[in-house]
Amino acid sequence: MRAVAFDLFGGELDLRELPDPSPSPHGAVIRVEATGLCRSDWHGWQGHDPAVRVLPHVPGHELAGVVEAVGSGVRGWLPGARVTVPFVCACGSCAACAAGEQQVCERQTQPGFTHWGSYAEFVAVDHADVNLIPVPEEMSYFTAASLGCRFATAFRAVAQVGEVRPGEWVAVHGCGGVGLSAVMIASAAGARVVAVDISTDALRLAEQAGATHFVDGSAGDAGAQVRELTRGGAHVSIDALGSPRTCAASVESLRRRGRHVQVGLLPDDVTPIPMSRVIGQELRLLGSHGMAAHAYPPMLEMIRAGLLHPEELVTRTIGLADAGKALASIGSVPGVTMITPGAPL
């Protein structure tokens, strides 16, 4: 198969021929029709994610495609099915899975991290009966692929972890793919959304996604700007980027007893949180890590009903030949970039 791979952390990302994957007994192989360019893949390439240990490595973790083959133990799927997957693939049998919390599975696997990912023509997925999600015929592969990481992650961060309610103020720090998704979902939930970014193009996309107030993150204290706009601070603030600056600004954006949701990845040795503010104002610090496959139906129903439009966030499509360069320069193009592995060179 053709795939984008790297041999050194931070090294060259090149297109090469690699062996096709085979399904595990309870797994499946997916022919990738679309896969998203995500900052989490950049972190993996840079060596920030401890799950990426063996090189060479193929990035890519949000995908949609067609079942190519299934293992002997798979009961619910046959080749030819249109599917997507959550980026956290659960085992289905640990204590967390038994509690319905597959997004924090104790034995989780993640394409593009624990094994080769979807910047390739084919990708292997473990425990197919637990993790595969049917893609409606009317939904494009681009839309389906955009759900697996950023949109589903944003949906759970806003609706389930952040518990956003109508009329509340929500600040979203970083208007890339996850941030724009969070803006759209929070707006659909009836919240008043403040978008924070250093890019005017990104803020323009945030306005199209439903934001009504805007903060230029390069123009000083973003937290103070949000507090002024919201007359006291946001009820919920989401760090969708993952940097010391955006994490601290998100916490600083909150009103008393507000909820900070961390979605963007941060290096483990970074501790930017103003803890005196957290204690003194009884702020809640919450992590959000994807969304389990069984939790997709409410999100899919909102898309079907026309309340959410994830396809509107896709601003660029490229082939595998351009994927390495695009990953190395991620953030330079606003919106969501989709890769089509089957496109000709």
From TrEMBL:
Its cofactor is Zn(2+). It comes from the Bacteria. PROSITE patterns: ADH_ZINC (PS00059). Residues 10-339 form the Enoyl reductase (ER) domain. Keywords: Metal-binding, Oxidoreductase, Zinc. Transmembrane segments: none annotated. Belongs to the zinc-containing alcohol dehydrogenase family. This is Alcohol dehydrogenase. It comes from Nonomuraea cavernae.
